[in-house]
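Input record, target 12 of the design panel.
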């Protein structure tokens, strides 16, 4: 494996057998664990609409989180490359998923709404370019087949 290849592994373990397996649609839980070696177990389920447990993460939330995290990490990297000091970053991401008549569905779009705080107000004009560059290098955004929109907001740190 060269530097240009990165492999990832995890285990998804269904924990929702309530005694009769999948004998009926409502007779089993959608609960599962996502296990990654060396990390805490992530408790998952399906969306409550699909009989899931609202106290657990669902795949749709995790896809949205992955896109938001990837953009943030890519943006911070791009900021460093441009000499821009970011002192805060918070994203209020939203995703739109549509269901089809046959029971399938897909994400139609995701909108990231990052609020970036800059140390130097003179860098505010660079923000559209930096968000664009971050989107171009974000591994997750480049891997999905739906648009990832951005509605960034930029603020500057108050002088201490």
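The sequence produced for target 12 reads:
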């Amino acid at each position: 494996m060269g530097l240009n290849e990165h492999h990832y592994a995890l285990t998804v373990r269904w924990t929702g057998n309530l005694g009769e397996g999948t004998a009926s649609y409502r007779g089993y839980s959608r609960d599962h664990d996502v296990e990654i070696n060396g990390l805490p177990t992530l408790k998952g389920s399906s969306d409550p609409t699909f009989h899931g447990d609202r106290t657990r993460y669902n795949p749709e939330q995790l896809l949205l989180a992955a896109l938001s995290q990837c953009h943030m990490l890519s943006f911070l990297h791009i900021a460093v490359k441009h000499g821009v000091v970011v002192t805060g970053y918070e994203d209020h991401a939203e995703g739109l998923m549509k269901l089809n008549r046959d029971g399938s569905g897909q994400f139609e779009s995701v909108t990231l709404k990052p609020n970036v705080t800059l140390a130097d107000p003179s860098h505010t004009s660079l923000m559209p370019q930096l968000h664009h560059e971050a989107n171009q290098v974000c591994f997750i955004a480049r891997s999905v087949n739906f648009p990832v929109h951005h509605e960034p907001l930029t603020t500057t740190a108050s002088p201490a």
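The mean pLDDT is 94.
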